[in-house]
Amino acid sequence: MLYPSQTARLALRAWREEDQPAFAAMNADARVMEFFPAPLTDAESQALMDRIRDEFSTEGFGAYAVERLSDGELLGFAGLHRVTYSGGMEGQVEILWRLRHDAWGQGYATEAARACIAHAAKLGIPELIAFAYVGNQRSLNVMKKLGMECVGEFDHPGLPEGHPLRRHALYYIRTE
Fold this sequence. Notes:
Elements (H helix, E strand, L loop, with lengths): L9 E4 L6 H9 L13 H18 L3 E6 L5 E9 L10 E7 L8 H15 L4 E7 L3 H9 L3 E7 L11 E8 L2
Antiparallel strand pairs: 1-2, 2-3, 3-4, 5-7, 6-7
């Protein structure tokens, strides 16, 4: 399996069993999950990790573990995901990231995402999308730093009508 190139500060790598406790802690943190419907339980984090691993076996890409090179700390994930839900984006490849709270504001998300964009190009994926709740300024700022273009807004089909997080901004970038 191919992985994104190492950056100056980060390795994007395969998941290890010993990553599960830190992964679950990140997903249970209300600050990290502020723009998601709810923090995840340990069982929900395990199910998410299982889905991530499955996507690697079916797609050859997925959400890579992001490790800080200076100390080997797992900071979260960044990677590529094929959109599967209905709503007009199914089949497109999304770039995504989630980092633990103490890793915010240091440029790690942008650095990891840039490596994923370059990786997508090597995999022959010509374009990527990204989306986030319209009020998630941190993620929207990352998209802008990556040079992504806002192409509109939509109601996330995975959230019910009237849900306060339903409205999302959609961004696009060509990888070439």
